[in-house]
Design brief:
With 188 residues, this protein is mainly α. It has a single domain (7-152), classed as Hypothetical protein, domain 2 (Endonuclease III, domain 1). The chain has helices at 7-15, 17-26, 32-45, 52-57, 60-68, 77-95, 101-104, 109-117, 124-138, 145-148, 167-187. The mean pLDDT is 96.
């Protein structure tokens, strides 16, 4: 795992499905490494454990303060604290508090993309990227996962966090994103 900026944060992502979901949720408008390191910082601030039930039941203003405390967990701490709590509530209500259950029972890639796409902060594109991440780095590969994750599921691609496994792949993904931004700007 090479998504976070510390070995401890990467180890947490590897073993804790809730941390992985939170990291992916936070991966917008901040550097990828910050987004995927923040679940480990949140775990520390919560007393050493990430638990969907604890997060869902946390007093909202106090939970927001966990996000605001320097270093802030996201550049938009209030909005992201609310989204993470909403995510935790869905995990509790629909998946009995087990984040990995979001993908454990998905029979097809399309079903998995649909399940992930219903989570707060996961639009259509992010759901496909997350399914590609699960397939490529966690061996969560229901039938049709590559097709369901679109271009992000392609073997050998360097288009998203799903493809980041080391420093060279991180640079390749960043180069791809810069090319896409330049092409979009040129098309305007």
């Amino acid at each position: 795992m090479y998504l976070a900026s510390t070995p401890a944060a990467n180890a947490l992502l590897e073993r804790d499905p809730l941390a992985l979901l939170i990291g992916m949720l936070l991966d917008q408008q901040i550097p990828m490494e910050k987004a995927f390191t923040s679940p480990d910082v949140l775990r520390e601030r919560l007393g050493g454990e990430l638990d969907a039930r604890t997060i869902a039941a946390y007093e909202p203003a106090a939970f927001e303060e966990l996000f605001r405390t320097p270093p802030a967990l996201h550049r938009f701490p209030a909005a992201m604290a609310k989204r993470v709590q909403e995510l935790a509530r869905i995990i509790v209500d629909e998946y009995d508090g087990e984040a990995g259950a979001v993908w454990a029972a998905a029979a097809t890639g399309d079903e998995l993309v649909a399940r992930v796409g219903k989570l707060p902060g996961f639009g259509a594109q992010k759901a496909k990227i997350f399914v590609a991440l699960l397939g490529k780095q966690f061996d969560v590969q229901p039938d049709g996962w590559r097709e369901a994750s679109g271009e992000y599921g392609s073997a050998g691609s360097h288009k998203s966090v799903a493809d980041v496994v080391d420093a060279p792949s991180l640079q390749a993904v960043r180069a791809y994103k810069q090319q896409m931004k330049a092409a979009a700007k040129a098309a305007q």
